[in-house]
Amino acid sequence: MRPDIKICGLKTPEAVDRAVERGATHVGFIFFGKSPRNIEPDLAGVLADRVRGRAKIVAVTVDADNDDLDEIIALVRPDILQFHGAESPERVLTVKAVTGLPVMKAFSIREPDDLKRIEPYIGIADRFLFDAKPPVGSDLPGGNGVSFDWRVLRTLDPNVEYMLSGGLNRDNIADALRETGARGIDVSSGVESAPGVKDLDKMDEFFAAVERASVREPVSGSAQ
Ligand SMILES: O=C(O)c1ccccc1NCC(=O)[C@H](O)[C@H](O)COP(=O)(O)O
């Protein structure tokens, strides 16, 4: 089955349009000043309006305070909040209660023990996003274009809903899907020509690779 596909860090109408034309189920906008993908909420709102109703609008923040979240929600009207910082389960619960929006909570993963950190969020976060640990010296908690060892997810409860993220690209997405069976995938650097610059051809190639991988997918567990 084709996974949900989130294209993250969009900044231009061309990139937003292409992502959704090619079948992105989610489009992500980054609100983090140090990121080359940072976008002002008013521009993100304009871009979101181009595809509203055709793809889920995801607002990505890092330990954002209430004022920043209020502004983003008012101007972007996201369908989902992605928390990519150290937001506590209590913070996730409070934001969900106040805003009525679902929250996808990101975790950086390197080894099996890292998965234990999701436990307090089960039943609270609506979905998880598993990303790689940032390289030493990186200013960014995400969008670093590095992968983690997907075999770590072998021990994960199959009922846990997550998006696989971190260093995905046209060349490794088939292996990633085969190894994890992820029902959602997320990409940023892998469809860029430079940090923060989406490459429409790379985006096309990524979607084509996902299609090929989804067609080849074995029908394990099926009687037919
Ligand atoms: O992408 C960023 O610049 C970013 C900055 C701060 C917090 C989160 C960020 N990205 C979040 C995402 O969902 C990315 O798509 C994810 O980390 C994967 O990125 P990549 O490894 O570049 O595909």
Automatic annotation (TrEMBL):
Keywords, ordered alphabetically: Amino-acid biosynthesis, Aromatic amino acid biosynthesis, Isomerase, Tryptophan biosynthesis
Under catalytic activity, the entry for this protein gives: N-(5-phospho-beta-D-ribosyl)anthranilate = 1-(2-carboxyphenylamino)-1-deoxy-D-ribulose 5-phosphate
**Single GO term (MF):** phosphoribosylanthranilate isomerase activity
InterPro entries noted in UniProt: Aldolase_TIM, PRAI_dom, RibuloseP-bd_barrel, TrpF_fam
Domain N-(5'phosphoribosyl) anthranilate isomerase (PRAI) residues, every copy: 5-208
Q: Could you tell me which Gene3D superfamilies the record lists for this protein?
A: Aldolase class I (3.20.20.70)
Record flagged with keyword Amino-acid biosynthesis: yes
| Enzyme's top EC category | isomerase
- Pathway the protein takes part in: Amino-acid biosynthesis; L-tryptophan biosynthesis; L-tryptophan from chorismate: step 3/5
Q: Which CDD domains has this protein been placed in?
A: PRAI
SUPFAM superfamilies given for it?
Ribulose-phoshate binding barrel
Biological processes annotated in GO? L-tryptophan biosynthetic process
Report the EC number(s), separated by commas if there are several.
5.3.1.24
Family, similarity comment: Belongs to the TrpF family.
Query: Which HAMAP family would you find in this protein's record?
Result: PRAI
Q: What is this protein's record name?
A: N-(5'-phosphoribosyl)anthranilate isomerase
What species was this sequence derived from? Ciceribacter selenitireducens ATCC BAA-1503
Q: Which gene encodes it?
A: trpF
